[in-house]
Amino acid sequence: MNRQFRVNGIAGIETHIELLNEVSGGFEARVSSTNATGLRESFEFIGNELLDSCLRTGYLEAIEEPAYAHAVLTA
To answer: Is residue 25 part of a domain?
Structure first.
């Protein structure tokens, strides 16, 4: 699964949400926030309706997977 989103809205705090597993009514998610004092990580439930609303309003922005994520390195 591992869909990732950037949270728009809080100046000075970079927050990302990674959907880990789909469960009944929503998703288990890892929420990571970085600011001047460090990193804070938590695991939360995000309901389908809340996720849809956040995407519709632009509060969450999908992060596209980097092109090199599936690259194979050879020597």
So the answer is: yes
Number of domains into which the chain is organized: 1
Residue pLDDT, tens place only, 25-75: 999 999 999 988 999 999 999 999 999 999 999 999 999 865 445 555 565
Alpha-carbon dihedral 49, 19, 30, 44, rounded to 10 degrees:
30
Residue 38, CA atoms < 13 Å, CB-side half-sphere = 2
Look up the domain containing 57 and give its range.
3-70
From the number of C-beta atoms within 10 Å of its C-beta (0-12, 13-18, 19+), residue 16 rates as middle
Does a structural domain hold residue 75?
no
Determine contact, residues 20/2, Cβ cutoff 8 Å.
yes
The partner residues of 41 in beta bridges, in order of sequence, read: 32
Question: Is residue 33 situated within a structural domain?
Answer: yes
